Amino acid sequence: MYAIVDIETTGGYAANNAITEVAIVLHDGNREVKRYETLVRPGISIPRYVQALTGIDDEMVATAPGFEAIAPTVYEWLKDAVFVAHNVNFDYSFLHSQLKDCGFELDSRKLCTVRLSRKVFPGAPSYSLGNICQHLGISIPNRHRAGGDANATVLLFERILQAGGLEVIRGMLKGRNKEQYLPINLPAEQLDRLPQTPGVYYFHDQKGKVIYVGKANNLRQRVSSHFSNNKTGRQKQEFLRNIYSISHEPTGTELMAFLLECIEIKRLWPAYNRSLKRFEPSYGLYTYEDRNGYSRLILEKRKKQLQPVYTFSMLLEGQNLLRKMIREFDLCPRLCFIQRGEDQCEGIGQGYCKGACEGQESSESYNRRVEEAIETLLKRLPSFTLVDRGRHAEEKSCILIEQGRLYGMGYLPADAAVYDAADLKSYLTRYPENDYMRGLIYAHAERWPVKRKDLP
Questions:
Q1: 376: which residues sit within 8 A by CB, 6+ positions away?
Q2: 3-state helix, strand, coil in the chain (%, to 5)
């Protein structure tokens, strides 16, 4: 038995909206068996634009039953039937949510007449209910009312069966067919074509614009997981409605997928990505020459127009490094802005400031130690590669850290030998980096030291 359903609602997602009308037609695959139709008092005001679309206003539903009154009947009609609707996940999400609030757990197999129409009537200009019905010569009296749209869906379903769609239906009902859970505009074949390997995936909208970027150790499994639940909130429902296609970029390893995801989110700024968008190194170590000719070291929040000597996620991390440089190279805490105020320079008292802050040491002498401190810092920053498996057997992946910073990553022939950074760079793509990405690489290198090769 098929339960062909249409509902009208106060809005486009179930979490903060409610049903205003329900129509259910039970169909045995040959003919209509019986039908149920009622207005529903939603308990909230119906927005003006919805009133204009459906013709249902607050006055019409004022004396209608609340959903809790009809829930037992709706559940009995739906519980043993295949749930059929045009854009089935929309109708199902509302009824599942409101039945659950009334103590009923709906767990139906689903059929989407949009997806069925695409398979049985390929090449139609559009598969919205109005357009596909017009294409097939099906009239829709009482459009945008539950009863009228349910009638049109019944006629469309019968036309699908008449056109040989029963085998398609059986295929879609076999097991828990994942196609029923996909966004309405996403072709199932695109999901099937995804490899079960690491990589980055992109969701595109109707115009092809990237609206979400994600990373995965198993692309097909991870993308499928986005659609394994049908959360009723506005953000999730809008997100699903806007997904029209998927593309992907395979990577050799999950680490490379992590890094490429960071890079692509920064490059594309997708509408539905939240994390990683705002991440930037918070602080930098900068150097400049003051009006007296002394080289100054200072920790500041990152400045886009200035190139730091080094960057830090936390101010304390930078302060600890700068204090170490001060002690090792006899620098002045005042000239490094570690000590502020009018008190005597703590470096003079402890023997590691030679009086530059008081004019007792020439700028030339002091600046040489600042240069030495910076050079030593940069030399101590590691240069190494992480070499791992590639995207296929004929290659291997490589990530290059040069003087503590990510230079880039790419793929080498499987038999290539790694000698130095200059040899590698012709194989690699250079990428922007940040502390988060660098931290991922260092953590991976520490966990898998066998993959790390230090470079001169």
A1: 328, 329
A2: 40, 20, 40
